[in-house]
Amino acid sequence: MKKTTTLRAFTLIELLVVITIISILASFGAPQLIQKIAKAKLLEVYSYSNGLQTAIEEIILTTGSFPNSTQFESLKTSQNLSDNSIITSASIEQAQGITGTVKIELKEENGIEANQYFLFSRTITAKWDCSSTLPKSLLSEHCRNINNEGHEDDND
Question: Among 102, 133, 131, which residue's Cα sits nearest to residue 115?
Answer without folding.
Answer: 133
